[in-house]
Amino acid sequence: MAKTFLLPFLFLTFAHLTIGQWAISVFFDDKHDKLRLPISAWYPFSYENPWVYSIVYIYQVYGISMSAVVNSATDTFASSMIFHLDSQIKRLGIQLSKVKLFKSSLYYIIYKIIMNYFRLDMKKTMTKI
């Protein structure tokens, strides 16, 4: 559980630190005479007014932040599912190890049927080669 929580948390933390540094980088640009947005984009209005610039700037930073959250969620989903599957297989193995197999039991009969099927299937495959 700790590993599953820690890795996405670290990823999101570093992603937001990067976004924060990227967002304030426009204020340290050499071109102070013109307002510059973090992402070059065309808008059907002029953002030279400081109020309009502030709204568009917050909109862009918020959009990039949400993109980082969505990307990190989708990137870590596969590994989280693999961790979950691993745990479920371990639980299944523990439960199956508690079952006693007797030759007259249904479990043993099903086991033999499956093993014979795979053995026959392997023999067919080997004869084709």
Describe this structure in words.
With 129 residues, the protein is mostly helical. It has two domains: 97 residues, no CATH class; 29 residues. The protein contains three helices and no strands. The longest helix has 48 residues. The two termini are 46 Å apart. It is a multi-pass membrane protein.
Q: Could you state the order of secondary-structure elements as H and E?
A: HHH
Instruction: Give the number of helices.
Output: 3
Largest sheet: none
Query: In terms of structural class, how would the helical and strand content be classed?
Result: mainly alpha
Mean pLDDT: 78
What's the number of extended β-strand segments?
Answer: 0
Low-confidence stretches: none
How would the global form be characterised? rod-shaped
- Which band does the percent of strand residues land in? under 5%
- What is the CA-CA span between the terminal residues? 46 Å
Helical proportion, percent range = over 70%
Radius of gyration: 29 Å
Taken together, the total number of domains comes to: 2
What are the defining features of this structure?
rod-shaped; mainly alpha; 129 residues; 73% helix; single chain
